[in-house]
């Protein structure tokens, strides 16, 4: 689904993403993990078309990436909700900027809010919501465009452990139901190991990939309680800690 070839992204003369090559399969999930400042978000912004490569290529479904790809959903850090808009107004934003009838928007967004169990919150403002509820609204907005690719930047970092797990389960079942690929950035090793079919570990300072793990047990809810889960978490931790 995604081919990244020798990707380099710069801020002025500073190289934030350094010669990264990576393939991500259709209907899969990819966790990008690494220490603060290693270029995770920049790589995600590259996939979203928000920042332009200095060199190299990104193809999504064989097409070079450009801004506003119709079927890419994006969830930014801290939910990205507009505080002056209600849950409903926030959720319909992605569709409103497209030429879609109000009736279709109504039907699509009502269904999604129902699926995410937040329809009764539709007239509330973000300030009146819990962190988990805000994240559900952000997910609803991203899903409203029926994405085949969902990009998430630290989607659950501000949530308590139980809410985080519930939302991880939710995202997982949505990914399986709706047949989309997910690429997410996280600091959290357990999250990467639970949700990432492919775990991409980035280097501390280089803006490059240090290691990729194929995780065949990803998304199995029982895996969280399995010894293999803790072993894989330890392996990821070791790789992250080893300095080159
Ligand atoms: N707009 C910008 N202008 C200049 N430098 C930037 C800009 N955005 C990010 N950087 C730098 O690029 C590097 C990578 O940043 P990025 O946000 O991609 O890292 P990250 O791994 O996502 O970090 P974190 O985990 O802390 O969010 C950092 O050194 C950062 O300071």
Automatic annotation (TrEMBL):
Domain ABC transporter: 2-225
SUPFAM superfamilies membership: P-loop containing nucleoside triphosphate hydrolases
Molecular function terms from GO: ATP binding
Protein name: ABC transporter ATP-binding protein
Gene3D superfamilies: P-loop containing nucleotide triphosphate hydrolases
Source species, domain of life: Bacteria
Native species: Evansella alkalicola
Keywords of this entry: ATP-binding, Nucleotide-binding, Transport
PANTHER family: BICARBONATE TRANSPORT ATP-BINDING PROTEIN CMPC, SPERMIDINE/PUTRESCINE IMPORT ATP-BINDING PROTEIN POTA
